[in-house]
Specification:
- The complex is a heterodimer of chains A (about 425) and B (about 190).
- Chain A is of the alpha+beta class.
- Chain A is built from six helices and 14 strands.
- The radius of gyration of chain A is 36 Å and the shape is elongated.
- Chain B is mainly α.
- Chain B has helices spanning about 5-15, 20-40, 45-60, 70-95, 95-100, 115-120, 125-130, 135-145, 150-160, 160-190.
- The termini of chain B are far apart.
- The chains are: A alpha+beta (about 425), B mainly alpha (about 190).
- The interface of A and B includes residues 2, 3, 7 and 25 of A.
Chain lengths: ~425, ~190
């Protein structure tokens, strides 16, 4: 009986006795874990995403480099005569032409660098002859008797593409062995008697106009930063934090861009229980939840299309629309509850790398872009992110706004 | 203390060997686990060693944990407590083998004292009193009085006879009595002063 009381007291002491956490003990524990349960390198889910981004950038870069437009300023239409007698061309090359200020293009000739017979010797096919240069820039195989006043030099270029006057469409791709000839357009026949000087001036003006309207797509790389603020409810605006990251832009039309990037931001906001939608079992543990303080480290990946207007040499305005994906890197929630005695109590809940939300936010923005020089530009872009679906553990419909300041570089622009 | 939801998420992350989650569980149950370990040894360093060995076993086997009843936290706490007890016994067996299996033959004088004295002791002092017991008595006392094992179960765990277990328990209680008498005397002197 006496020992019952003693045992009871001892059991009570054993149940109630608790020591405070000791960080030094964890240091020893961590060493033990590193030895017996070493951590594997985190295969972050971001790696496939980064790989895709890298592939996109490199593919776009290769595409642009390979398809850089040539210095063609004018051309005549080619007429392929496949049924015509083939020339004895052993190593044909399609020759592109460049107009010089003193001559006017009249014919295009496919000629082999090693051909003994010059196509110019073929009568009935060509009106004018050309002096074709090989890659070593030596004049080869010329029939001087056929050389006319308006002859010019043709650099040999491979691969080849032929443009029509508009420079936007391929007219023909010349294959090896094809017989190529041109017909001088009717308007050219009429103007053939006009002075060459006048004709040269007209063509120069045309070329200038064409050059002005000519568009070349390009890729730009951007670094951006700016303030960002989030809110679950517009009555309670969260804390402002810095939004920063890098991006890539592809301009495929003089008025249109598409861009994406990778940005990091900390979203700090307050939410009411009415805005918080965790799993149902959560409410068993927090029946008297009063408020939620959230502090989330988020990676944002936007996909945006820009429309540019008011374009000039030095600046332009733009409006944008697109979607953003959120990768919730770390979520810290402080839950405020009331005890039965009416006292406030807070408990913290932290989760990492648990929630990813793709295309979960609609992004709208507008801005101003100022060109520093041919390669660099800066821009200012106020934006809004409107929720499409809830994010994070509590599936909160988070709204964000901010201003993005960007420095961009166009590395491949000629 | 963690909620059931938080604990489930942490357990899931620990199955993936997530260090942050392991630390969170370690820090949350540290107080409870170290109190168990301290009852089986009178040296703080040994208590931490038992604690860390116990948590290592927990993190290795956490994939196999399934709540025995609906209260996940209490179920996990019970599982953790049992692992700590067995780890402590293994530790004592390894370092105090002779002392654990032999019952001491020292005589203990039975004395009477007022049990009211124990009410004035703090939990820390009571635990300290248990820590001061000889290893063999301390282990049997913990397993019988606090953990609730029977003498047969204790005999199986410690590889001793059931009789030895009963004898060690009896002697443990008498040692505790002596400690409490000393404490009672100190209290009386202090009050007189």
């Amino acid at each position: 009986m006496q020992f019952d009381r003693l045992n009871k007291k001892i059991k009570e002491a054993a149940d109630q006795y608790n020591l405070n956490y000791n960080e030094e003990a964890w240091v020893k524990m961590e060493k033990l874990l590193d030895e017996h349960l070493p951590q594997k390198k985190n295969k972050r889910k971001l790696i496939p995403l980064m790989l895709m981004l890298f592939l996109f950038i490199s593919t776009s870069g290769v595409f642009l480099i390979l398809h850089r437009p040539l210095n063609i300023v004018n051309s005549h239409k080619l007429i392929k005569q496949k049924n015509a007698t083939k020339l004895n061309i052993t190593n044909p090359a399609v020759v592109f032409y460049e107009q010089n200020n003193k001559s006017r293009l009249q014919n295009i000739l496919a000629k082999s660098s090693s051909a003994n017979k010059s196509p110019v010797n073929q009568t009935g096919l060509l009106r004018n002859n050309l002096i074709a240069k090989s890659s070593s820039q030596k004049v080869i195989d010329i029939d001087k008797s056929k050389v006319l006043q308006n002859d010019f030099f043709l650099p040999r270029v491979k691969p080849f593409t032929v443009y029509n006057d508009d420079f936007f469409e391929k007219e023909a791709v010349v294959q090896s062995g094809d017989l190529i000839s041109t017909e001088i357009p009717e308007q050219n026949k009429e103007n053939s008697s006009a002075s060459s000087q006048q004709k040269t001036e007209n063509i120069s003006k045309q070329n200038t106009a064409i050059a002005k309207n000519k568009f070349k797509g390009y890729i730009a790389f951007n670094l951006s930063a700016g303030p960002d603020v989030s809110a679950a409810d517009l009555d309670e605006i969260g804390k402002t934090n810095i939004f920063f990251g890098a991006g890539i832009t592809y301009q495929f039309h003089k008025n249109w861009n598409i861009r994406t990037g990778f940005y990091a931001v900390r979203k700090i906001y307050e939410a009411d229980p009415s805005n918080y939608h965790p799993p149902a079992s959560f409410w068993n543990n927090y029946p008297n939840l009063e408020d939620i303080d959230a502090n989330c480290k988020v990676y944002e990946i936007p996909l945006i299309i820009d429309y540019k207007f008011g374009n000039s040499k030095s600046h332009n305005w733009f409006t944008s629309a697109g979607f953003s994906s959120y990768l919730m890197k770390k979520e810290v929630y402080d839950y405020g509850t009331k005890t039965v005695t009416g006292q406030n109590q807070y408990s913290r809940f932290t989760i990492r790398n648990q929630n990813n939300h793709f295309l979960s936010s609609l992004r709208l923005s507008a801005g101003y872009e100022k060109k520093i020089n041919r390669k660099f530009f800066v821009s200012t872009e106020p934006y809004f992110n409107l929720p499409i679906s809830g994010v994070g553990y509590g599936k909160v419909k988070l709204k964000s706004a901010g201003i993005l300041f960007t420095l961009g570089v166009i590395p491949f622009k000629e | 203390m963690l909620t059931a939801e938080e604990l489930k998420i942490l357990i899931k992350a620990c199955c993936l060997n997530n260090r942050e989650s392991q630390k969170k569980i370690y820090s949350s149950f540290y107080g409870y686990a170290i109190a168990i370990c301290q009852r089986y040894t009178n040296r703080q360093e040994d208590a931490i060693e038992i604690l860390n060995d116990g948590f290592l076993k927990i993190f290795k086997e956490i994939k196999k944990f399934k709540p025995a009843y609906s209260d996940v936290v209490a179920s996990f706490k019970g599982w953790l407590g049992r692992i700590m007890v067995y780890t402590a016994i293994d530790h004592n067996r390894k370092y105090l083998k002779h002392e654990l299996t032999t019952s001491l033959n020292g005589k203990v004088i039975e004395m009477s004292f007022h049990y009211d004295a124990i009410d004035k002791m703090s939990y820390e002092e009571i635990i300290k009193t248990i820590q001061d017991l000889p290893p063999a008595y301390r282990t049997v006392f913990n397993l019988y009085v606090i953990e609730g094992f029977s003498h047969d179960e204790i005999a199986k765990i410690l590889s001793i006879s059931s009789g030895t277990s009963k004898s060690n328990l009896s002697k443990a209680k008498k040692h505790l009595q002596k400690k409490l008498i000393n404490y009672s005397s100190i209290i009386s002197i202090n009050n007189a002063v």
